[in-house]
């Protein structure tokens, strides 16, 4: 949410952020309900590509399953790298806040990304037994930190008007169409809802996954979505000087809001550190989830050298090689940042588009079966008579999101602000297609 706060204000303004949050909550809930129904049918770590193989028509089953697997794995790999990048840049932002003379370099950010990733690797290998407790701790800390941050903001910050929060529009991205600007602003908050399917990829390590996984998906959106929506409202009502927030030297508007509120560098540092620590915990959980997805895809022969990466380590009882592959790939991608932050951002922008497309493919297949009234062997958790309507809404929201997430956030487009996620995604599709022919 904090990563999309600045572009969301520039494109669409506060109203776009608020109503974008509402749209993202309802749309993502439709996606979660649709995926939860499929998880109840087939609770496997491969998730989306397994469901595609199960639901797709025979003529296109092999090809769509192959493409689905590559899109899902690549989207999640981008998600790991993006969280790592976000945590690293937050640390750089705090260094700038405490030491204004500091001159941030891209290679500094890369080294910080390495540190974050190596920490996540160590926890996933040497402390795997405490991962469930760590995830529970992270969930509880979300609520505790929410209260800790909201209280000083509400008590100390200047107040924005309800008119500013709910109706004010901004179009500072150069778009001639306020509608396009509004759509881009709304979708900047969508990133914080991606990756809700992480629990699905741990299905083979959960008891009674056919019932438990759908419940986790719904609870994830309901709890985290509500907290994110309320926190967005608090930030907008307590934003103070919008220009100062948008042009903060730290790179993070939320740090500027904390500083305006408290007037203290130390208090701001502590407040932001609580969020950064949650980023660390989140990255550990995401690495665990993505490594299981990668292992499952290798187990089914989807990756180069699949037999090597499909092995489960006898000592640690985890897919150690898959964990190494996920972490090493993130480290390699972080090297791009040394040459160009824009190039790295292009890959990270694929997190939203790739994951949403990975959700849409099996939902399309399920909707097609429902429309044709073909028999479906549902699991113990089903959407019943509401299934078709929920699937259709999920598809509409997903198509809307994947369309506008490929747009550049500023006009005129330059080499620096260009959104390269579309060409990179096309390259991924071509690469996967070539691998399929081989």
From TrEMBL:
One of its GO terms (cellular component) is membrane. Signal peptide: none annotated. It comes from the Eukaryota. It is found in: Membrane. GO terms for molecular function: transmembrane transporter activity. Keywords: Membrane, Transmembrane, Transmembrane helix, Transport. The chain crosses the membrane at residues 16-35, 69-91, 111-133, 140-159, 179-200, 221-242, 273-297, 318-338, 344-365, 386-407. It is a multi-pass membrane protein. The keyword rRNA-binding does not apply. InterPro entries: AA/rel_permease1. Its main location: membrane. It holds the Pfam family AA_permease_2. This is Amino acid permease. It comes from Aspergillus rambellii.
């Amino acid at each position: 949410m904090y990563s999309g706060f600045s572009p969301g204000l520039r494109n669409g303004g506060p109203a776009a952020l608020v109503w974008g949050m509402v749209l993202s909550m309802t749309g993502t809930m439709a996606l979660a309900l649709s995926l939860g129904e499929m998880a109840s049918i087939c609770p496997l770590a491969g998730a989306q590509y397994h469901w595609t193989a199960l639901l797709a028509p025979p003529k296109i089953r092999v090809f769509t399953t192959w493409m689905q697997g590559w899109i899902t794995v690549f989207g999640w790999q981008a998600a790991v790298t993006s969280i790592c990048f976000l945590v690293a840049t937050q640390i750089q932002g705090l260094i700038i806040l405490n030491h204004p003379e500091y001159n941030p370099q891209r290679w500094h950010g890369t080294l910080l990304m390495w540190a974050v990733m190596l920490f996540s690797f160590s926890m996933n290998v040497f402390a795997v037994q405490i991962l469930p407790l760590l995830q529970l701790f992270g969930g509880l800390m979300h609520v505790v930190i929410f209260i800790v941050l909201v209280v000083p903001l509400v008590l100390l910050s200047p107040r924005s008007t309800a008119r500013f929060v709910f109706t004010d529009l901004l179009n500072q991205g150069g778009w001639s169409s306020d509608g396009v600007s509004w759509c881009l602003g709304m979708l900047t908050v969508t990133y914080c809802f991606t990756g809700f399917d992480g629990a699905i990829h741990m299905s083979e390590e959960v008891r009674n996954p056919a019932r438990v996984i759908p419940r986790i998906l719904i609870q994830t959106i309901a709890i985290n979505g509500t907290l994110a929506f309320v926190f967005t409202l608090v930030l907008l009502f307590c934003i103070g000087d919008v220009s100062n927030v948008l042009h903060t030297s730290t790179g993070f508007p939320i740090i500027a809001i904390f500083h305006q509120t408290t007037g203290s560098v130390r208090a701001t540092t502590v407040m932001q550190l609580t969020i950064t620590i949650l980023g660390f915990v989140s990255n550990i959980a995401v690495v665990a989830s993505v490594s299981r997805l990668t292992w499952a895809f290798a187990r089914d022969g989807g990756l180069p050298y699949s037999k090597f990466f499909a092995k489960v380590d006898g000592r640690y009882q985890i897919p150690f090689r898959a964990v190494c592959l996920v972490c090493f790939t993130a480290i390699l991608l972080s090297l791009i940042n040394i040459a160009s932050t824009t190039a790295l951002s292009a890959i990270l922008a694929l997190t939203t588009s790739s994951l949403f497309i990975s959700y849409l493919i099996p939902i399309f297949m399920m909707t097609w079966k429902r429309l044709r009234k073909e028999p479906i062997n549902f699991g113990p958790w089903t959407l019943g008579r509401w299934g078709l309507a929920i699937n259709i809404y999920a598809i509409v929201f997903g198509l809307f999101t994947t369309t506008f997430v490929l747009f550049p956030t500023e006009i005129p487009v330059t080499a620096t602000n260009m959104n390269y996620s579309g060409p990179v995604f096309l390259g991924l599709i071509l690469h996967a297609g070539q691998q399929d022919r081989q």
